[in-house]
Specification:
The complex is a heterodimer of chains A (289) and B (292).
Chain A (H helix, E strand, L loop, with lengths): L1 H22 E6 L4 H14 L4 E7 L1 H9 L5 E4 L5 H9 L4 E10 L1 E4 L7 E3 H9 L16 E5 L4 H11 L8 E3 L2 H9 L4 E5 L1 H5 L5 E2 L1 E3 L6 E2 L4 H5 L6 E9 L4 H11 L1 H9 L7 H8 L4
Parallel strand pairs in A: 1-2, 1-3, 6-11, 7-8, 7-9
Antiparallel strand pairs in A: 3-13, 4-13, 5-9, 5-10, 11-12
Chain B lengths: L1 H34 L2 H4 L2 H6 L16 H32 L2 H14 L4 H20 L7 H25 L3 H9 L4 H12 L1 H16 L3 H6 L17 H8 L8 H35 L1
Classes of the chains: A alpha/beta (289), B mainly alpha (292).
Amino acid sequence: MRNFSIVFAVISGLLLSSVSYADVLQVKGSDTLINLVQRIAEEYMKVNPDKMVSVTGGGSGTGIAALINKKCDLANASRLMRGKEIELANSRGASPVRVVVALDSLSIIVNPNNPIAVLTVDQVGKIYKGEIKNWKEVGGENMPISLYGRQSNSGTYDFMIEDIMKGDYSPSMRQMNGNAQIVEGIKSDPSAVGYVGVGYAKNAQGIKVLKIASKAGAKAYDPLDTVNVRNGNYPITRPLNQYVEGSLTGAAKDFVAFELSPAGQKIVEEEGFFEISQEYKDFNKNAGL
Amino acid sequence: MFRLKEKIIRTAFLINGVLVIMILAGIFLLLVLNAMPTFKEVPWKEFLTGKNWNPSSDYNPGYGIVSMIVSTFMVTLGSLVLAVPIGIGTAAYLSDVASPKVREIAKPVVEILAGIPSVVIGFLGIVMVGPFIAKMTGTYSGLNALNGSVLLAVMALPTIVSLCEDALANVPKSFQEASLALGASHWQTLVKVKLQAASSGIIAACMLGMGRAIGETMTVLMATGNAPAFPSGFLNSVRPMTSTIAIELGEVPYFTTHYHALFAVGLVLFLITFVINMIADIVLHRYESKLR
């Protein structure tokens, strides 16, 4: 009898967990977005105790692949979906819709012992392409540059290729597993340069955030400077996105609406990113919000 | 009744044996089937001789795996250079020098080393071995092939020590007694008789240690820096085959050329470890029949 009740408890437990599992909103993707979306999810679940949101990382590519492979409900992406990915999704009868949830000013960081303080966008691109190999070529010490970047599943990795470098990375770049590892690597490497989402640059100790100028001779701006990021003076800003399959409905719509609400956008600012501009608020209306 | 029981037990063991072989065959088949579509788009020659691996590039895509094969062998052979002398030395100490009491404690301790999770070893590589290497060599970062070699040496040691010690312990007592009776010293007996007699067992132990090192993923992923460039030395960052698969398989859309190419890399890795283990097995058998 006792055995029977244990078996019964186990079976009913399994049933319950499988039922509630179906109600969990699965969010997956960008490593830049993960801390932010996790915090928003926590707040969201506090306000809505009956809702469950699970947020995991892996990189934008991982999230988008998961969305195409129907393994998640929302994909966090710090880049846009590629043509090939959209084709692939369409060929499987899916049509992903994009929502912008936050703005990021991509930060270029170096070791605090490096005297360099300013770079132009063009210089950053050439450094990552391997065309500039020594800090003295950009006015620094005579010291080879060691590149730290992300792995190819990262949206930031792609953003750099498409918007900054317009070419491939130097194959000597160390491909680190996430923003935090780049920060760690740069702390101990005086010759290093790296790129991280502003949320990771804001509170990190032991690194120096560079000012970036849009072109040679132009004024350089700091990615931590809210005013100049908002008005577009800081040259490397980008929208942080979420993709949803088909159209926003049900649990996903409810969660995204919370992200875009004043409460959600306040968390965006607290995590070091920037509230979305009017332009993107209008854009989000296309997704049915 | 007894007959029936015997029959059932026999069949059960047969099923177990067949199952293991079928799992191996199944894995191999899965790798081959998933890898084959790669070569509809990428020629064999480019795959096996190209140095540019950059499948997701819009500018200069490439599917050459030479850089990662070289990286894998650099890290693995580097680890053997470190682990084999230390491993054989430790085994000789345990079997011939240490008192039975010391051996009873020391051998299990060495074997516990095998139980340390690879992610822990990788972590040590990032926070301890890497900075140490950077300091000693005067380079800026210790995330390189040398770091990977040191860590893999630590991971291969328990296999090498344990199997070498077994090989030395299996040398018939008469060999040792004959040598000592002829007036050879303990040292001469150990080096010229016992190590010689156990040589194929020792070689097999090293091969199995190598098999352990070559397939290791987490440690090299964390400690070697993952730069896909063709390595030009042990102080360069490298990206072995295992790391490439681990990094890229998560992001790749299913059933694309890139997806299949990763299986092809896995197939190459499987074949390399298979050959190494097979050689180790053949050497071991030769050694067993020699002593009989």
